[in-house]
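## retry 2 of 3
previous attempt timed out at serialization; input unchanged, resubmitting
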Amino acid sequence: MASKAHNFSAGPGILPAEVLKAASDACLDFDNLQLSLLEISHRSKNFEAVMDEARDLVKQLLGLGDGWQVLYLGGGASLQFAMVPANLLRTNGTAAYVNTGVWATKAIKEAKLVGNVNVIASSEDKNFAYIPKGYDIPRDADYLHITSNNTIFGTQMKAFPKSDIPVVVDMSSDIFSRPIDGNQFSLIYAGAQKNMGPAGTTMVAVREDVLGKTGRKNFSMLDYQVQIKGGSMYNTPPVFPVYVCMLTLRWLIKNGGLSWIEKVNNEKAALMYGEIDRNSLFQGTVLDSADRSMMNACFVMTKPELEPEFDKLWKEAGISGIRGHRDVGGYRASLYNALPLESVKVLVETMQHFEQKFA
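## retry succeeded, writing output
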């Protein structure tokens, strides 16, 4: 079997090898049923146990207390851009948003179709190359929406705003990458395909006390209360992605939980950013190093005409997925939980070799 590529893809991202092995085994024979995971009933006791554990592990890792419900839904985080205001934004109310990138911009667009939106802070003036700070949060808003990590621009909130109103956070690209107190939020959502599992499901954790206050009816599929009552199975759930999420969360806990993975991620990020800052042929794109993402290291070349030469070199080294987003260009090394330190070392050595050859 050929060796695995060093996978820096921004998403779908790399998953632990043991998770992939267990998931592939389950596709052939799940729970010794002589049936594939892909063909069992989602109403069976065997899969209900999977869904229950997948929800419980989220609560355990995020430290969620009483009153929280965890859902696994379809539609990606992009559907949550609409579901959040549909469930939390009151008739004639206002929602507050912080705009830190493409996905936050899309969330704002969807919320405006539901009701009033107040963009209280934005980094758009510098092409989203920093995290806004020091903004005032209106106390009369129905909720505050933030995006914890911005994959395209490589910025990350290292601290979260203190708020008297419910806080909603899109953690699609840094969920479970560091310890947080989930109880400081009222709703957390994350597409699975970065740090949790394959594309196809989105985790939503929500406090029940913020629901049912909009003053209007909602479509059943878009109603968190309907989905809660159905146990994430109002319709047929994304069985395989939920199972892989459960396996990944088991893997995290087995190895030491979020404190363990934070140390691993910090080591990878320090190595990556250290080389970006040292190497004369590369430079970072984030204005303030304090805002640099631990998950997505974005950088460009100081001599853009050499990009074809660098592309040839990293491909020869077995590296995959480091081209930057089409809206930004340059390069992006995504350092998700399952990416081994060894892969970062290979990329850093490739950058060093490139400098020696062309500087």
